[in-house]
Amino acid sequence: MVTTSIPATSIPSTLGVLLAGGLARRMGGGDKPMRTIGGRTILERVIARLSPQCSGLILNANGDPSRFATFGLKVIADDVPGFPGPLAGILAALDWTAANRPEVAWVLSAAGDCPFLPRDLVARLHEARERENAQLAVAASGDQIHPVIGLWRVDLREQLRHALVVEDIRKIDRWTARYKLATVTWPTEPLDPFFNANTVEDIAEAERLATLDAVSG
């Protein structure tokens, strides 16, 4: 396992947002994070991975928030209409953080359907951002960048709002291209930590990977 050289005490206070606003069309609808892997929901696994790394977690989801009540997280909906994608969830999280946690300058976004997220995700992203003097940081594995999984500065929220509402920018990498971006790569063995469960077949694969994940720690 790759570790970070940053002491835990020096990592900036970071709020985590779990993005669960997708429509799950490839699974026939419903909430992907509520699917079960190895007797635990994907969302439970994501929360367990990120809680020790963040100074709090919130959940971005649209519709009736009561369906997530058992997880005990604040649920925030997109405030840009029309399901414009994960950037809307990130913007909602930045706005919520500015209003409710003004002492927090950074938000980590993560897909709510990634059950095997790295335990050093926040630390390594901050390390790369500081080392490269970057404004944002995103995760990668192998040769694939995962733009949904990254660090976002709260004070960039108005720029993001303008990009979404005025310029109709929906793709994350179109927006991040405007800023200095640090990219951190994790190995894909024994498993890709950013594996996400998009289809019914992925759930079956995740059951197999959960065994490897338990062994690798």
Write a brief caption for the model.
The chain has 6 helices and 9 strands; from the N terminus they run βββαββαβαββααβα. It has helices at residues 42-50, 86-100, 121-131, 157-165, 172-176, 200-216; strands at residues 14-19, 36-37, 40-41, 57-60, 74-76, 106-111, 136-141, 144-153, 181-186.
Q: How are the elements arranged and paired?
A:
Blueprint: E1 14-19, E2 36-37, E3 40-41, H1 42-50, E4 57-60, E5 74-76, H2 86-100, E6 106-111, H3 121-131, E7 136-141, E8 144-153, H4 157-165, H5 172-176, E9 181-186, H6 200-216
Parallel strand pairs: 1-4, 1-6, 4-5, 7-9
Antiparallel strand pairs: 2-3, 6-8, 7-8
Helix pairs in contact: 2-4
Overall description:
There is one protein chain. The protein is α/β, with parallel strands linked by helices. It has one domain (12-216): Alpha-Beta Complex (Spore Coat Polysaccharide Biosynthesis Protein SpsA, Chain A). The protein is 30% helix and 21% strand. Strands 5-4-1-6-8-7-9 form a 7-stranded mixed sheet, with helices on both faces. Helix 2 (86-100) packs antiparallel against helix 4. The protein is globular and about 40 Å long. The N and C termini lie close together (9 Å). The relative contact order is 0.18. Residues 1-9 and 23-29 have low confidence and may be disordered.
